[in-house]
């Protein structure tokens, strides 16, 4: 089971979009996936429209019994291979700034119960560093940092990277998977400048595929549909980028010791195009 926390400490940069895009790519590839909505805004839950659950992330974070974990999970409306562990507005009350080891370990306990059920777990984090995001970092084996190519977002991703490094004290297996740059406009000099700045700071951790700024992303989300099913040229472009990202995640998580390489190899590109 590959467990990926999707985070940034800045709001609105595309964490949920990345979690949903990867879920869409996973659906296309038939990868059994669970999306865990840790954000009290519940954007991922609303877009994936899971069936009714009798529990939510709150019950799991308070007491991760097998019954509570099962009661919080339902199939998404997207397709058979994507399930949702439902978010809740009440999770805000559980976002302790200094939660302590026991609270931080509960999500990890819950995921241990699901190890045989899913190939991929995507944790959509809120834009803050309290119990919710930190629980994801304790439960995950990989952290995917999301940023836009703007000055404030670059500062946010640096803080997120520091948070990942700090959490390794509680989860020695946690590795930064990379930094994905979202909403890129290739002709913008400012964007190109910020991407260079990110490469200076993070080197090969900056993912070689960037996600373009396309209206199709908002349209597909508005219609609660996977980007792979939206069908416009913009949607196809974004979908291909998510195929590449997913291929990289599955491959890097498989070979944990393999260092991140800035370029995609031929096999990854072929897999992404065929998906
Ligand atoms: N590549 C993109 N192209 C166009 N619009 C995008 C793109 N990525 C994100 N958006 C839009 O930007 C807005 C914010 O994205 P999203 O909700 O994914 O960010 P977030 O980081 O999860 O926000 P929050 O911090 O509130 O959880 C949404 O309306 C989304 O549709
Ligand atoms: Mg979000």
Automatic annotation (TrEMBL):
UniProt-listed SUPFAM superfamilies: P-loop containing nucleoside triphosphate hydrolases (SSF52540)
Pfam families: AAA_31
Gene3D superfamilies assigned: P-loop containing nucleotide triphosphate hydrolases (3.40.50.300)
Occurrences of domain AAA (ranges): 1-166
Domain of life: Bacteria
Name of the protein in its database record: Chromosome partitioning protein ParA
Species assigned in the record: Saccharothrix coeruleofusca
């Amino acid at each position: 089971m590959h467990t990926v926390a999707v985070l940034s400490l800045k709001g609105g940069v595309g964490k949920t979009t990345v979690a949903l895009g990867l879920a869409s790519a996973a659906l296309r590839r038939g990868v059994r996936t669970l999306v865990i909505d840790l954000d009290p805004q519940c954007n991922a839950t609303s877009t994936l429209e899971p069936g009714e659950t009798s529990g939510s992330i709150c019950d799991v974070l308070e007491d991760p019994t097998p019954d509570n974990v099962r009661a919080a999970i339902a199939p998404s409306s997207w397709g058979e291979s994507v399930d949702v562990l439902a978010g809740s507005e009440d999770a805000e009350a559980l976002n302790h700034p200094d939660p302590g080891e026991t609270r931080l370990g509960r999500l990890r306990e819950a995921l241990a119960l699901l190890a045989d059920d899913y190939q991929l777990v995507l944790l959509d984090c809120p834009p803050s560093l309290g119990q919710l995001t930190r629980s994801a970092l304790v439960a995950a084996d990989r952290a995917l940092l999301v940023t836009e190519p703007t000055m404030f977002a670059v500062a946010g991703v640096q803080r997120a990277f520091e948070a990942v490094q700090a959490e390794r004290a509680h989860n020695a297996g946690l590795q930064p998977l990379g930094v994905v740059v979202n909403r890129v406009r290739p002709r913008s000099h400012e964007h190109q400048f910020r991407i260079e700045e990110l490469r200076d700071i993070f080197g090969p951790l900056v993912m070689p595929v960037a996600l373009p700024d396309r209206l199709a992303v908002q349209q597909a989300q508005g219609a609660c549909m996977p980007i792979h099913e939206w069908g416009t040229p913009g949607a196809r472009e974004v979908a291909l980028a998510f195929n590449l990202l997913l291929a990289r995640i599955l491959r890097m998580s498989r070979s944990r010791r393999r260092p991140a390489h800035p370029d995609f190899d031929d096999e990854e590109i072929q897999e992404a195009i065929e998906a």
